[in-house]
Every structure is written in C-alpha cells, then in structure tokens.
Amino acid sequence: MLINQQTNSYLNRKFVIITIFVVIGLVFIVRLFSLQVLDTSYKLSASRNILRHITDYPARGLIYDRNGELLVHNEPFYDLMVIPGQVGEIDTVSFCNLTGITIESFERRMQNAKQFSYHRGSIFIGQIEKDSYAYIQEHLHKFPGFYVQSRTLRNYVYPVAAHIFGYVGEASQRIIDNNPYYQPGDYVGISGIEKYYEEFLRGEKGVKIKVVDALGREIGPYQDERYDTIAIAGEDLYTTLDIDLQIYGEKLMQNKIGSIVAIEPSSGEILSMVSTPNYDPNLLVGRVRTQNFLSLYSDTLKPIFNRALMAEYPPGSVFKVISTLIGLQEGVVQPNTRLYCPGYYQSRGITVRCREHKNPVDLTGSIKYSCNTYAANLFRNVIDQDKYKNIQESFTTWRDHVTSFGLGNVFNNDLPYELSGIVANSDYYDNIYGSNGWSSLTILSLGIGQGELGTTPMQLANVAATIGNRGFYKTPHIVRAIDDPENKNSKFNNKKYSTIDEEHFDFIAESMFQVVDEGTGRFSRIEDIEMAGKTGTVQNPHGENHSVFIAFAPKDDPEIAISVVIENSGYGATWAAPVASLMIEKYLTRQVERKWFEQRILDANFINPEKHPDKQ
Prior knowledge:
Layout: H1 2-38, H2 41-46, E1 51-56, E2 63-64, E3 70-82, H3 92-99, H4 103-116, E4 122-128, H5 130-139, E5 146-156, H6 162-165, E6 168-170, H7 173-178, E7 187-189, H8 192-196, H9 198-201, E8 206-212, E9 218-221, E10 237-239, H10 243-252, E11 258-264, E12 269-276, H11 289-298, H12 307-310, H13 320-330, E13 344-347, E14 350-353, H14 363-368, H15 372-383, H16 391-403, E15 422-423, H17 426-433, E16 453-454, H18 457-468, E17 472-474, E18 479-482, E19 495-497, H19 505-517, E20 532-538, E21 546-553, E22 560-566, H20 572-589, H21 595-603
C-alpha cells in the first residue's frame, strides 16, 4: 500500500514537471512566431542595410492677398543625401566635377555627415535646382551611398513685402533641440508671417521606404508602400494685404528711408506695410540665401531692418491730436477756447518756437495750423490741474490716456519683433530730478510730441485708425483667415477703447479734415475725397528733420487709416502728406489721376545727398 502511494506521488510530480516544460515551450514558440512572423519591426531593423527611409516633405502652405491673389507658392528643389556607411571607395574627383564642389568641400561635408550618423541619411548638398538635379541624377548610380531627396522652396510672386513675409531658413540646433518635429536640414520660418504661422504653414512630414541594391540604386517601394506615410500639405494663409497698394507704396518710397503703414480701421486689417530700403524676398531663398543675407545685413542702409515695426521716432506734431483729446477729456479746454500766438511759447527761460499763422486761434485752428504755443499751454494746463495732489498723479493720468491709443506697448499681433515705443513714466523723471524736482515745464516738450516719446509707424497708423473709429481700435494684424478664406481670424477681433469719451472724436476728426482742406496739409487735398490728417515735422539731431503724416479717409466711416514717415526729408506737409494722399487715392479709387503730383514723389531722392530735392 505504501509503495503504491509513493509510486502515485512520483507520477504526479513527473506530470507537473512535464506540464511546466510544455507550457514554457509553448510560450517560447508563440513568442518566436510573433516576433518572426507577425511582428515586422525586427525584420525592418535587420533590413536597414537594403532599405532607404526617405522623408516626404509636405508642400508649405500658400499665401494669398485679401482679394485672392497668389503671393507665395512653392517650387521643386532637391537635396543630395548621403549615408556614409554605404559610400565605400568612389572616384572623388569625378563626383566633385559632377556636383560642382571642391575636394576640400567634399571632405568637410563627408566629415560632417559621419559625425551625424554612419547609417542614416543627411544632407550633403542642399537646394539643388531641377536642371542640375537631372544631370546629377543621371550619373548618381556610380556613387553608392548617395541619393536625391525632393523638397520645395518658397517663390515670392512679387519682389515686394519682404518684411511682411519674412523668410524660411534651415532650422538651428536650438530649434531642433526644443521641437521634435525638426531634424537637421529641415526648414523653418525665421521671421515675418513665415515664422508666426509656422505650425500652420509647415504641414506634416511623411516617410517613403525604398528597396535599394548594393550600389544604392532604388529597386522599388518596400512591401508595396504598406509602411509608407503620406505627407500632409501645410495650410494656406489669406492675408489682409492689398498687393496692388503694397506695390504702389514701395514704388513711391523708392530712394527714401522710412515706412508706410495702412490699416482698415473697422477691422484692424493691415492693407499695406512698407519699410524702405527694402529687398526682393526671393533673395533669401535657395543656396544663395546665406550670401545674400550677409550682403543685406552689412548694407549701411539696413534693408533688413523693419522700420514699420521697429523704428522708434518722436511723433512730433501729429501727437497734438492726442494732446487735444486729453485736454477735452480733462476739461481744461473747449473748442472755442482762443489764444494769441506771438510766434513762440516762453516761460522761465524756456522757449518753444511756432510757425507763422493766423491769429488768434481756437482749438480747431491750433490743429489746423499746428500751433506749438497752443499745444504747450494746453499740455501744462492738463498737468497742473488742482484736482491732482502732485505731478506724479497728474502725469500718470496723462500717460494712461496716451497709452490707451496703443502707444508705449506692443500689439502682440502676428508680426514678430515689433517694438513697444517709449512713453516715459513718472518714475523715470523722479530718478532724474527727484520726486519734487520736476514740473510741467520740465517735460514741456511732450506737449508737442518730442522729448521722452518714441512711436513706431504701426502705432501712428493705429492712432489714425482709433480717431477714425471715434475712440476704439482692433489690433492691427496681417492674416485674416487660415486654410479657408471664409473662416475669418477672430483672434484680433476685440475692440480696444481709448480713455477718451466718444463725444470728443467728431470734433477732432473735423479739425483734422480742416488740416487738409485749409491748413498745413492742404497741398495734399484729394478731389471728392474727405481726408482727415495731421502733419508732423520731427526734430532730428543727426541731420534733416523727419517728415511725418497720419490720416484717415473718408472722414466719416473711414476705409483706410495711414501713417507715413520719411527720414531726413523735412516738413511733414511737403513729403509725407503727399505720399499718404496718393496711397489713399490709389486705394479708394484704384487709380491715381494726379500724375504730376505722383511724379514729384517718384523723383524725390533722400538717400543720395547729391540728389536731395532741397539741393536741386
């Protein structure tokens, strides 16, 4: 009995052990079957030496103007790629003759490719044009390890608006480190809307897997393209730009240093943004981009510098419209308040000169004739009000009014690298003079738009738009829709109100109309168009004064607001106002009748001192 029990126990243990081994064996068999038959990842890994993974780059999104005119599209280019581990012994001299590079360049490029990876493709020669590509491709089978990868590069239809579009360049190591989308050799928007809307424009990359022979020649797709992924093209941009107006503005500003910014007041859409000197955006495309960029960068006229967003000028007399609105809001002046101007303002040894004009002047007259005496008195009356306990409080109130027009701040719109301008605060003066050491007379120059004030042309155009809208503005922006022209961009649609009551703006608008109808800007009056404007002449310690003008038209329910700044040209009425007048005529009527007036501007040259109009 005992023997039988021991025998049964032995058999049970034997059965358990055999069962365990069988189960383990089955697990291994199933796992091996999965790895070798069902899972192709290891098969792909083992086949890397005969498979070539080619990035399928998407077409970058197109860019259109506000009327559907194509502005930016893509053209095919090619990159010559290399996998160093597959190169072996080749005829280097023949290769260099084929590709047009030197032996030294070949060795340097090959060393860089090896540092990147022996077994992964990298760019050996980038941005080869299609004519050269056809010749290289014909002989490339002689050089194993090299292959061609198709790309697209930007083509800008018109040689204008370079500062708006920006440019596309190779992604830096910093960008690659911070964004897994980008690999060495990828392109990315560097500036302008190419940069701001990069994530929309770039699309999504795909991958094509090709089978190649020992010489690197493609045999065909791998597994009938089963593992390929399709590139998704970038989304198109529909800008607010009127390309005809942009072309015309750049034409008017030839041989001049300065800018034009035109905005549709009701929407904040930028119709035109000109910065001169400028350049053809196609100069920063392709293999010549680096060379051309260095040339533009070293140019003493700074064509790459976007003056519309980054140049900061004292606003000069155009600032008087804001000063006057502040005076009306603060109740220190009325439209019928009259003042006699002896040709200057003088107080405690400080003198501010004024031009000759009719006397006495009321508030409209002070704007129409740009009276410095009136502006100085008005400014001091605002700052010296008894209702404020000290100058810091009154000045802060004045400053808050000023910044509510968009001055002293960036707009945070879709144009990168804008500057905020300058509107000094009370701490600035306290640090210089002490809290009790300054007064309205100390900062009197602010009243006539000089002193510690710096405005960008974009901000000045926005001031004109705010007055045209009778007290509000929408953030100036350059793209109205993405992908679908009917899908309007709502990001910049909110109204931003100034601190000035709406009731005061009709008076200012009418006064600005009087500037053009009878005052300092009458030379630029447009037949049958009521243009409201304000001239300005900005003092420049380094040479001729800057000519400045802001305007909107028509006076009631305006369709365009504009600022023009022409450096080193003199009076605002003489040069900036005519340019603005021609731009407004062009936009509202689609043509320009005053050919003699236009020709005068086209002939003006403020870059060549010998051709300066004042020396002719």
